[in-house]
Design brief:
Elements (H helix, E strand, L loop, with lengths): L4 E2 L9 E2 L8 H4 L9 H16 L3 H8 L3 E10 L5 E12 L5 E8 L4 H17 L6 E7 L7 H14 L9 E5 L5 H14 L28 H13 L11 E5 L3 H12 L3 E7 L2 E4 L6 H11 L12 E3 L1 H6 L1 E7 L8 H6 L1 E6 L8 H9 L3 E3 L1 H4 L2 H15 L5 H26 L3 H20 L4
Bound molecules: nicotinamide-adenine-dinucleotide.
Length: 455
């Protein structure tokens, strides 16, 4: 563990040790570069740092430094104009020591193997942190779904899942939605898998994916789960920072599924969402935005821009958005958006990472120097996979839970995970990100200690 500590200016309880990145010898041993701009290497660096603090055995560290399986497929799809186009898809299975691989499938033009590997490793950590019996996986297809017709999207979805059919399964690897995919795509995945899979497990085969429509075995509460998990974590951890969910102010970067639900649920509990910014622009109201009206606007207009025309907000620039004085900044858009420069502009006490890996290492250093508390993504954004687990349990037991049960179970998982992180932070005197990895790895380390390595 390194010993330097940056100054926590606004709250004496914040301990924010900076560390020298990429110190682990595992990078040399496995021939991995030390590149801070590579999302996968950043993630593994954080994992290995926590492994070293916990003194986990060498074999656990080398296992976690690389995914177990990296699957890459190319598949042709008939386009509406009659020609065939070849698509590239990935499924990365990082670790299954705690249970079947679990993680979303992203349709995005920038999907790359390294990013999918990183997101798969984060899934291993999330599932272990919230103590659900899953490992980590992630997948993607390099495509912009907005450029496809509905029929083309259906054919891409069916061809991709059939290309990886032998690599997934209800007890082996269970995909879910991510950026660019939704419940409809999951319905096509499930239907395709149910049609082409065979064998004794066929009866269970709709459990091959989660995030399905309710009518097809989806769970109540799945859509809002990630945003709700963010708010459950904030409600639990803000008091230690002398803040409260019912009086705090917040800024939302991204107003899609996760951002809009986090905003609506924060407002429901008394907090004020002062501003929101997405790929179309930004809006602000010093008394708090009407989060429900903004959600409606985004659904009808594709983004937050123009909401000011409704008369209940002002338009703001990206610089005004980042530099706004708020208690909580919630990044709920894409990865790596809080760069060093953006971090310098930011004027908040807490960053609650609702998106996966939204903060660059350089951005994180700046925020820590400013004394900003960062609540890491493996904690804040684990509500979605938690309710995915509930969906899988409901499919496996042929039961349907009511929303009260889903909400209660989700809250219990999120509060316990937040407390685990808080405890690890105090025990090891580390920042919250390192503490979250430690809390996840304590569980995984025990599983490896008990199971050993075959043979
Ligand atoms: P989404 O597609 O519904 O929303 C994405 C949001 O990001 C939109 O508001 C979009 O306008 C905004 N955005 C995109 N580019 C931007 C830019 N350049 N500047 C500002 N805003 C931009 O996706 P989502 O499901 O809400 O996911 C958001 C993040 O949360 C992703 O990182 C995703 O991996 C992560 N996540 C999602 C879930 C889930 O259950 N949906 C679970 C865990 C993590």
């Amino acid at each position: 563990m390194t010993t330097t500590q940056s100054q926590a200016s606004h709250n004496a309880s914040i301990v924010a040790p900076s560390r020298s990145h990429f110190g682990s010898q595992v990078f040399d041993e496995l021939g991995m570069e030390r590149d801070p701009n590579n999302l996968y290497l950043q993630t593994i660096d954080a994992v290995l740092h926590a492994c070293e603090i916990l003194e986990l055995p060498h074999h656990v560290q080398i296992i976690l430094a690389q995914p177990k399986n990296e699957i890459m497929v190319h598949f042709p799809v008939l386009m509406d104009d009659g020609h065939h186009r070849l698509f590239k898809g990935y499924r990365v299975q990082h670790n299954n020591a705690c249970g079947p691989y679990k993680g979303g499938i992203r349709f995005h033009p920038e999907v790359s193997l390294d990013d999918v590997k990183s997101l798969a490793a984060l899934m291993t950590m999330k599932c272990s942190l919230v103590r659900i019996p899953f490992g980590g996986g992630k997948g993607g297809v390099k495509v912009d779904p907005r450029t496809l017709s509905k029929e083309e999207l259906r054919r891409v979805s069916r061809r991709f899942i059939s290309a990886i059919e032998t690599q997934v399964g209800p007890d082996y690897d269970i995909p879910a939605p991510d950026v660019g995919t939704n419940a409809q795509v999951m319905a096509w995945f499930a239907d395709t898998y149910m049609n082409i899979s065979s064998g004794p497990n066929r009866g269970d085969s709709q459990a091959v994916v989660t995030g399905k429509p309710i009518e097809m075995g989806g769970s109540l509460g799945r859509e809002k789960a990630t945003g709700q998990g963010v708010i459950d974590v904030l409600a639990e951890l803000l008091p230690e920072l002398n803040l409260s969910i019912s009086t705090c102010t917040a800024a939302l970067l991204g107003y899609g599924n996760v951002g809009s639900w986090a905003a609506k649920l924060l407002a429901e509990r008394g907090g004020k969402v002062l501003s929101a910014f997405d790929h179309t622009g930004g809006v602000y109201n010093e008394h708090g935005l009407d989060t429900l009206a903004l959600d409606e606007w985004v659904k009808n207009h594709g983004g937050v821009a123009g909401f000011e025309k409704e008369g209940a907000a002002d338009a703001i620039s990206i610089d005004e958005f980042y530099s706004m004085d708020v208690d909580v900044f919630i990044p709920a858009a894409l990865e790596q958006m809080i760069t060093e420069d953006r971090a310098r502009q930011m004027n908040c006490k807490v960053v609650a990472e609702a998106a996966n890996a939204p903060t660059t290492p350089a951005g994180e250093r700046v925020l820590m120097e400013k004394g900003v508390e960062i609540l890491p993504a493996i904690l804040c954004s684990s509500g979605g996979v938690t309710v995915s687990y509930f969906e899988w349990v409901q499919n496996k037991t042929h039961m349907a839970w009511d929303i009260e049960r889903v909400d209660e179970e989700l809250n219990r998982h999120m509060v316990l995970a937040a407390r685990r992180v808080q405890l690890a932070r105090h025990r090891f005197n580390v920042d919250m990100r390192t503490a979250a990895y430690i809390a996840a790895l304590e569980n995984l380390g025990k599983v490896y200690a008990m199971r050993g390595i075959f043979p």
